[in-house]
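Please check these two lines:
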Amino acid sequence: MRQRHTSQDDPRAHGFEAYVAGAGTRLLHTATLLTAEPPDANPHARRLLTLALAHTYASWDRLHGADPYAHTRQYLATRFVNGAWHRRGGLLRPRARPEGPLARLSPQERLVLVLRLHEGVAEEQTAALLGVSAERVRAVLHRAMTAVLRPPPGPAPAVGGVEAVPS
């Protein structure tokens, strides 16, 4: 009778598990930023990451010498683009309105902001991934930064129990 293979016997699975243990938290944070979900309630980000990790595992043997993190990040971004911009299959269609400063951004602005500032991807690489010029990436990043740094419209929040006086 043939013995079953377990992940403990398989060096491929062991290497992948070590990779996920080291990079999983950062990748989940990246996916959460892309979907603009709260960190404690991020089902779309978790689904996006699961798909990216499954793709990386399927490609694990072909990644000889390549950076698995860059591979996963690229698939994560590509899957986000296909789901958020084209709304195919409703992968990233939020049921509840996301909150936070990145929720005000368009999916393209969020993607560029996360890739450039959080992940540190070079402008040229971001442009190649998105199929746009480097100047377009620069313009989208500038627009996103302006939107994030500008206070949201509406009354100022109360600080220390003191409410703002309307002007």
User: Anything to note?
Assistant: Residues 86-96 have pLDDT under 50 and may be disordered. The chain is about 55% helix and 0% strand. The radius of gyration is 19 Å. The first helix runs from residue 11 to 35.
